[in-house]
UniProtKB/TrEMBL annotation:
Belongs to the methyltransferase superfamily. RlmKL family. Specifically methylates the guanine in position 2445 (m2G2445) and the guanine in position 2069 (m7G2069) of 23S rRNA. This is Ribosomal RNA large subunit methyltransferase K/L. PANTHER family: RIBOSOMAL RNA LARGE SUBUNIT METHYLTRANSFERASE K/L, RIBOSOMAL RNA LARGE SUBUNIT METHYLTRANSFERASE K_L. Gene3D superfamilies: 3.30.2130.30, RNA methyltransferase domain (HRMD) like, Vaccinia Virus protein VP39. It comes from Pseudoalteromonas holothuriae. PROSITE patterns: THUMP (PS51165). Keywords: Cytoplasm, Methyltransferase, RNA-binding, rRNA processing, S-adenosyl-L-methionine, Transferase. Its main location: cytoplasm. It is found in: Cytoplasm. Its EC number is 2.1.1.173, 2.1.1.264. SMART domains: THUMP. It comes from the Bacteria. The gene is rlmL_1. It catalyses: guanosine(2069) in 23S rRNA + S-adenosyl-L-methionine = N(2)-methylguanosine(2069) in 23S rRNA + S-adenosyl-L-homocysteine + H(+); guanosine(2445) in 23S rRNA + S-adenosyl-L-methionine = N(2)-methylguanosine(2445) in 23S rRNA + S-adenosyl-L-homocysteine + H(+).
Amino acid sequence: MQFIALTSIGIEHLLAEELQQAGLELGKQSVGSVRFNADNIAAQRFCLTTRFATRVMLMIDESEEINDKAALYKFARFQAWQDWFGPTQTFAIEFNGTNTELKNTQFSGLVIKDGIVDYFNDLYEQRPNVDKTDPNIRVIAKLNKNKCALYIDYSGPRLSDRGYRTRQGKAPIREHLAAALVKRSGWLDDISRPLFDPCCGSGTLLIEAACMANNIYPNINKEFAFKRLPSFRKSKFDETIADVKSSQTDNSLWLIGSDFDSKVIDVAKQNAHRADVDSQIKFTVKDANGLNSVAKRAGVILSNLPYGERLGSMAELVSLYRNLGIAFKKHFQDWKLALLGTDDSLFKLLKLAREKRYKFKNGPIDVELNLYDLNARQVSQNEQKTGLNFEGSSAFANRLKKNKQGLKSWLKKEQVNAYRVYDADIPEYNVAVDVYNNSAVIFEYAAPKEIDDVVAQKRLQDVITLTAEQLDIAPEDIAVKVRKKQKGESQYTAMDKQHRYDTIEEFGAKFKVNLFDYLDTGLFLDHRLVRRYIQQNAKDQRFLNLFAYTGSASVHAAFGGAKSVTTIDMSKTYLKWAEDNFALNNLKNPRYRFEQADCLKWLEHAQGQYDLIFLDPPTFSNSKRMKDVFDVQNDHIQLLTWIKKILSPKGTLIFSNNKRGFKMDEVGLIGLGLKAENISDNTLSPDFKRNKQIHNSWLITHG
C-alpha cells in the first residue's frame, strides 16, 4: 500500500531519513511531503513513532485526467469504497486545490461526496451519512491542475500535537519542528553532553530532546484514525505498542532550561511532567541578558530566540542579542550553538561566524536555524572598542548628550517630562528620539533610496544601544517604531500588545500614553504649546475639538474653564482613550461630549456655534470609513468653508497640520471673509526648534 507523510517545509529530508530508518520503502519526495510503501502494521508503527510527520494518509488512487465535474464524479464513483468503510458509517470530505473548471473547493467536495453516496446506494441500496465534525472516515482529495489524488486519513489528529502541551509560551514552535531542531543541532550525536536552552519558554525543545534521547513516544496514547478502518487488528496493534515501549531507555541526561518569566517556567515544568520527562530537565527562572556558565563540560545551546512579535520591542531584542553574543564568548567556549530566529540582522549582533544554516517554516513564519562553533578562534576575535557597528555612531551619542544638556533648564522650569531630545540632527542617523518619564520612543524616518538597507539597520541598532546608555533607560523601556517589510504571511499576523500605559503631566493636566502598542503614543508632543494656548483662552468658551485623537486638547480646554467641550473623532478606541484622559483628571460635566463621527461629514452638516475650535486634520487620508480621499493642501478651503458656519462672530479657530511645505490659500481665505495669523514659530517649544517643519499653525478669525 502507498502512503504519504506530510510535514512542514524544511523537514522533508529528516522525514525521509526517519522513514528509511524505519525500514520503509521511499517514494517521491516533494515540498512538505514524502511518499512511502508499507503494510498496515509498518504504517501503524510509523504513526506511533514518527517525530517529524504531521499527518499520514493512505492513497486510494490518483488520476491525471480530472479536467471537469464529470471526470471528478466518475473518479470518485468507481473506487472500491467498501474496502475502507461501510454504509452505516459516517464520512467527511476534505478537498484541496482548483483548476480552470473546478474553481470552488466546496463544490468539488460535494461532487466527491455524491460519487461516494451513489456508490453505496448502487451496491447496498443504503447510503452513509456525512459528519463534518467527527466522522468515522475522512476522505481527502488533492487537485493540482488535472491531477487528482484520493486519500484516506490514516493518522487522524495532527501528529505534532503530542498531548503534553496544554499551555505554551508566546512564540511557540510545533513539536515536530522542535524535534527537527534537536536533530539538526547535533546534540543527539552525544547525549552525554549538556543541552541548554536560555529562552526555553514552555520547554518544548528540551522535552522533545528528552523523548528522542530515551526513545519515548508520546503519540502512543493517541486516537489514530486507522483504528476505524476494516483492516485494523487490535491484537496486532497492541503487540506493536508493547514492542515500541520496550525500546524505551533511561539514559541520564543533562538538560537545562531557563526563562525570565516564572509563569512560563511553571508551564514548562507541567508540560515536562505530562511527557514523563520532568526528572530529566532542570528548569530555572533567569534572564537571558545575564547568562553565565551552566556546566563545566561543553555542550550544546539550542534555543528559539525571541523575535519581534510585539510592536516596538526591537530595543529589547537588540540588547538581548548583543548580550548573548558577549555571554557566549565569555562563558561558553567550546560549546556548539543552534539558534532559531527570523531576522538575520539580529543574528549579526552576536558577532559570531556562522557554520551552517537551515531554513524552516514555523506555521506561516519563515525561520532559520543558525549553527555556530564557539572554538578558541571565535571566542578570541577582537571586537571594536565600542562594541558598535560603526565607530562613527559616537557622533550620535555626543549629539544626544548635548541636546539633553541643552534642554535641562527648560525641562526643569516647565516641569516637562515628555519631550523630543533628538530629531534627525545628523542626517546619517535619521531618527527621532522622544523621552516619556523613564522610557523612550525611537522613530525611524524613511531612509533615502541610495542608503543600503543593511547599513540603515546597523545604524539603527547603534542608535538603540546608545539611546539606552546616554539616557540611562533600560532596553525594555525603549519602544522602536521601524520601517520593516514583513515576510510571507507574517504581514497578516496581528502583533502582540504589551498593554503598558504610563501617565504624562503637562501644564497641570495628566494624560495616558502607550509607547509600545501603537504607531503613535496617544500624545502629540509638538502640540504642547498649542494645548497651553487652548487652556489659557478657553474660559467660558464653547470648545470644539475635531480629529480629536485622544482628546488631549479637550482636556486642556476643560482645565481652562470652557463652558462646553465637544470632542469628535472617527475612532472608537481613541474616543474611549479621550474619556479615560478626562477621568484621569477628574473632569466630569454633562457639557463634556464625545462623539464618534467622520469629521468631514460631521462638519458638512454641522449646526450650532463654537467660540474656540481646534482643527488638526490628517495630511492625507483614504480611510475606508471616509467617503472621499482627503488632502489637506487641496481641501483646506473646503474645511474652512464649513468651519466658518459654526465659528461664532468673535470666535477663534486654531488650524494646524503636519504637511511639509503647506501653503495657505490666502485668496480663498479672503473670499471666505476670514483672516489668518501664522503662529507656527510661537507653537514650537525648545525641543522642536530644530525642526521648524514639524507643524504649521494659524489663528483664524472672521475678517
